[in-house]
Amino acid sequence: MTGPIRVVLAEDQGMVRGAFAELLALQPDIDVVATAATGDDALRAVEEQRPDVLLTDIEMPGRTGLDVAAELHRRADPAKVLIVTTFARGGYLRRAMEAEVAGYVLKDAPIADLADALRRVHAGERVIAPELAMAAWDHASPLTDRERDLLAEVAVGASNAEIASRLHLAEGTVRNYLSAVLAKLGVRNRTEAAATARERGWL
Amino acid sequence: MTGPIRVVLAEDQGMVRGAFAELLALQPDIDVVATAATGDDALRAVEEQRPDVLLTDIEMPGRTGLDVAAELHRRADPAKVLIVTTFARGGYLRRAMEAEVAGYVLKDAPIADLADALRRVHAGERVIAPELAMAAWDHASPLTDRERDLLAEVAVGASNAEIASRLHLAEGTVRNYLSAVLAKLGVRNRTEAAATARERGWL
DNA sequence: GCGCGCTGATGACATTAGTCATCGCGAAGC
DNA sequence: GCTTCGCGATGACTAATGTCATCAGCGCGC
């Protein structure tokens, strides 16, 4: 042992951030060296504090926790990333895996799991919420990258003409792609496609 | 003073529930007599424990915190209700007001506000998050009840024909209503209307 | 009791959205 | 080298959406 585990905590909700920070600080082997409310603050805190572990939520203003994880991975930063989130979405887990995060736990789990996961991640283990390890992959998105781009536009209410101009496509092409998306999702119109994709985290 | 404030805590996310419960339990004047992960459990806990205050999240499986608040209000239960939630949505606050809740605070606020709000609510004060007291009403939904019903169907991807049959309307009527909704929201199609309404909490 | 807003309805019309067949190009995969 | 797949495009359809004008009953406010 070389001293307590140095942790940066990123979580946008003030109460949850405060509560986690206070509880973790009660653990003798854990030292919360900084907290952040946004992804950008989290990155800055990691640069300044060089912690052992970044404990981060996903949904935060500006950069998300997944964006931060991807950025740290790109920089080959030695800090391990432990994602703690509400969302048991396959898409999130996929992106987390791509960013090589060290752990992914759900806020649904008991609070004791948090410090436990932190210690295991610090020890070099990989910690994935068991509900996800199984469930994530049979929900894998059948969409291609381009189809996802398109669907993202659909989800904010863009018309085919708008999508065509934003994505530099012919309008007919947009119609065709969307037709394929509808078939893959097994739905009958764009609005249902948007609702379904949102629900399954395929946006 | 007749002893500590007896609190029932309802919150679906295990980690957040655990963290809040542990922190509140550290306060000498607060006694967490029960915790619940669903609205139904919360109701049951209030019946059994007869607490001074029910501290509850809104979004929970089954019955929401707002449903529970409305039910307790209907029963003229003496327990005061303090809503603590992520969502600064006008619609939620409106429904909370209708259920005569004693307080409404945001998880965005610092953790110290939680125990503070709890004490003030117990003392008979009404505590509303300042961001909301102002903001909620200028975002008030311009939609009528029926229009909201319709939009809820639209948001899950129903076609006009489906909406017509589910709501017992003529299809032409559905088209007209939707047209009015689109005009009120200042959008150009149903998918954008769904996205906008979801974002503003008007569903 | 008159007006207004909500609800519900028709019908005609213009515009979008969605389907299908078919094509070209390039990059993998075996 | 041939096939498969992703990407992008036309064109010709059909079906679904959205717009507008117009009407009628009901309840509420003043």
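qc> Chain B has a mean pLDDT of 88.
qc> done
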